[in-house]
Amino acid sequence: xxxxxxxxxxxxxxxxxxxxxxxxxxxxxxxxxxxxxxxxxxxxxxxxxxxxxxxxxxxxxxxxxxxxxxxxxxxxxxxxxxxxxxxxxxxxxxxxxxxxxxxxxxxxxxxxxxxxxxxxxxxxxxxxxxxxxxxxxxxxxxxxxxxxxxxxxxxxxxxxxxxxxxxxxxxxxxxxxxxxxxxxxxxxxxxxxxxxxxxxxxxxxxxxxxxxxxxxxxxxxxxxxxxxxxxxxxxxxxxxxxxxxxxxxxxxxxxxxxxxxxxxxxxxxxxxxxxxxxxxxxxxxxxxxxxxxxxxxxxxxxxxxxxxxxxxxxxxxxxxxxxxxxxxxxxxx
Length: 333
Known about the structure:
This protein has 333 residues and is mainly alpha-helical. Helix content is 75%, strand content 0%.
């Protein structure tokens, strides 16, 4: 009996190790295919940078890469504390592993998996609600600045069909007000004690939400806003490196609109994410006479340093994920 148990444990461990290796290899293969398909664009970026000396702006852009994801890790560490106390390093590894998996899975499922599977507690499913709150705060920040940017764009450019664009801005502000109402009433919502069968089935994942106070939600919002500021600065510096000489307010509005469409289209993931960035950038900056080649290369550059590089690094942490709950503690909070 004991021998059978040991054999079973050994088989399970080997199976999980094999699965992690398959995931790791799958991510690297997907990156290889992507590099092969986008090789021309990458070569164009490298050709441009080979001609350009390493300026202070370039150093700042590169140094802000780990800072960007550090804010995401800090946010996840704060949120996960309701389920389990984790170190900043563990949070960072979970974020990067999630990023690597998310870009090759539908609906950002990999983002949840990377963070959840880094936890040591058996009650890992409770963290789904925490991740949802963190992603929701990042979405809210993008909606907030994106709606303001979009409104300014309509005021200046008056694109056609104007009524359609106005309707989109109105919808964005309705979503912002709805999000604000939810934040103030999260602990009062009947969702957690509903008689609805559907709500009851997902209750175990969302109950954690009522444990977050308004002050904690406000703190998470500030972290999300700080992260938004970091990658906005990166984008602005990249635009300036490519000598896209426009007034600062026009550049800021462009950044807000690009990140708005990128965030709303997150479900399209890797190729869709890059495509949406490029299409939005070309559409917006085209109104101000920016050359197509400049804006597409600039957009590709920010994607390359802020998504592709962290994905490659994050793939290494897939091997550290805890795919089994066997031998995990019931609670490490």
